[in-house]
């Protein structure tokens, strides 16, 4: 495979959001260093993290100008020194948290590259290394979900939320899902037992009503802002768990006084990148469990809505504006 010296890519030029994401034609094709691989990207996953990075709210995120996109799938085009077990031409998916996936070529750490499952197109594997393990980690090792429990899943029509709903139903939970009104049918079709308007002011009251006044055993909290307080109020006293893994609706404070006098619940933070680094054994268990879910057909092959690379700024703006459903992808 001949590798060009320059490529098309989406470059973020400020921290003012997706409006300053630009298509460039002369980005240098990166070279894989020791332990790295160069992947010819055929499909890049769009994640809310791309918005956080473009707004500068992602802790330790890349500084502009940078090539955007963290999730890339494609074909191994070159391998760096010391890389074994990955053949040129193999199809893989991986994450590069400092960006570069919205491009024709991307460098990825070889150890984190996961083979695209046999028989799947590259784009059908999007979700496999970001959304699905995050949802699974929230439900199982951190959330401790068991059959018969009730789980409240926010942003249930989104890339991460849809996977969470499917898995929670597979584990025998009752699912209360939240989504904007136009997305409710999608979430119902995934098997959610109840779908609540994510923009409703009385979210907590509605969840309490649906749970006979006790609240949910587990809450997947990816929203924050005013919704965090509603989530805490909608959680079962003493035994209920709230997994906080997103802040799309803004930051929100909770005090020790709140935990003692208002919300006697378990509050747990999740960042999948840190989980991989700090608890590789738990991540290994998550990926092992996910293999079983793939084999059983609970997850995948994914069906992302795919756009041309040049449409990236518009797609990201729509994601930020809550106008999208499901997993989104860009084709370089
Ligand atoms: N911590 C981690 O390691 C990790 C890893 C992956 C993802 N995440 C988090 O998981 C969440 C979902 O990510 P995703 O990439 O799959 O995105 P997504 O769910 O496809 O899209 C975000 C959705 O969040 C909902 N939302 C609620 N309030 C919002 C607001 N104020 N602004 C924008 N959206 C709002 C919207 O759904 P409705 O309009 O239907 O309510 C929107 O469609 C994000 O919070 C992301 O940061 C965290």
From TrEMBL:
This is NADPH2:quinone reductase. PANTHER family: QUINONE OXIDOREDUCTASE-LIKE PROTEIN 2, SHORT-CHAIN DEHYDROGENASE/REDUCTASE. Gene3D superfamilies: Medium-chain alcohol dehydrogenases, catalytic domain (3.90.180.10), NAD(P)-binding Rossmann-like Domain (3.40.50.720). Residues 17-330 form the Enoyl reductase (ER) domain. GO terms for molecular function: oxidoreductase activity. The lineage of its organism: Bacteria, Bacillati, Actinomycetota, Actinomycetes, Streptosporangiales.
